[in-house]
Amino acid sequence: MQKPNQLLSSQYKKTPRSTIQDNFIGCLIGGAIGDAFGAPVEFMSRENILSKHGHKGVTEFLPAYGKTGAITDDTQMTLFTAEGLLRAHVCNSQKGSTTWLGCIGHAYQRWLQTQSHPSPEYLTVSNDGLLWQIHDLHEQRAPGNTCLNALSMAGQFEEFALNDSKGCGGVMRVAPIGLFCWRGQEQFSLEECFNLASDAAQLTHGHPTGYLSAGAFAAIIYQILQGDTLKEAIHCALSLLQQKPDADETISAIQMALALSTTKSEHALAIAELGEGWVAEEALAISLYCTLVAKDFNQLMNISVTHDGDSDSTGAISGNLWGAIHGVEGIDKSLIEQVELGDTISDMANDLFDFPTWNSDLQSSKEEFSRYIEKKYPGH
Prior knowledge:
Elements (H helix, E strand, L loop, with lengths): L18 H20 L7 H8 L9 E2 L2 E2 L4 H22 L5 H15 L14 H4 L12 H8 L22 H9 L6 H13 L5 H18 L4 H12 L6 H14 L5 H8 L5 H14 L3 H9 L5 H16 L6 H6 L3 H13 L3 H5 L4 H10 L4
């Protein structure tokens, strides 16, 4: 396999970033850091975390999967979500013959195969492009059984899961949809962003709470980039949820997070009221609460993973939110330097920001640039 930098060329280094581009990078890097913070303690109780790591809990990267700063399936699937969107854009720019959800589903099949699980034999999967060539993404980092099973049984790339799971595996991976849809506002309204994220989650999670929570999360990211405060963005997402059937669980969880954020409750007690994060609405609510109350990124990392339950997912979602609000400058630089695949994650965030500028080049005579992009994000 090629190393990722063999796909890249210094000829295509970007111009100095804009402030909003820093928020794109911050969103994906922050999520990866949160994922890596929670990875070593994902299956531990808060009591065991404190016993093993001290009374403050997790305050720095701890070893997991044989390294420090290791990401899990949460960041893997986040990257494959982004790749599906970018490949769909390239394909549509040149052929106009694919769908956003189909390309996301196709990307998830590539991820499935990196986890040593075959895709259904009747699906033709293109194993190429940027992410497939990154060796570290072929490591198994506690992938969720719901995702593995749903994708292994998919009849087509856009087929919704038939299970009744509302696990957090749908919500933890859709931040790129909020970024992509906001950048492509000519094609995606806020509600269309919500719906695409919901559909992407429904590829693996069939319970309405599992996929509506994902829609709400992507919509919140979209509205943050639009200039809303986090509370304003949350209220926009609640307005959308109130129009959807079967949204009561998600609405109640978000409202509880908002209410607890205005109290002086001890953080650990407030998080315990919200749940453990194994299911979608709890993971989203915990992450919203932590982002609302944290004074800085390091405190956010500490409180979002030092609890019973699914620490890597709540850390990842919290990091996505913080990065979207505060940008890469609001994140501890030493953590950025240590997190696994940081350069690849930043590169993909830049592409999520830059993709609208590719159109004229992909359709023009700039053949060298077109070949570069097509190699990075080919076909489906």
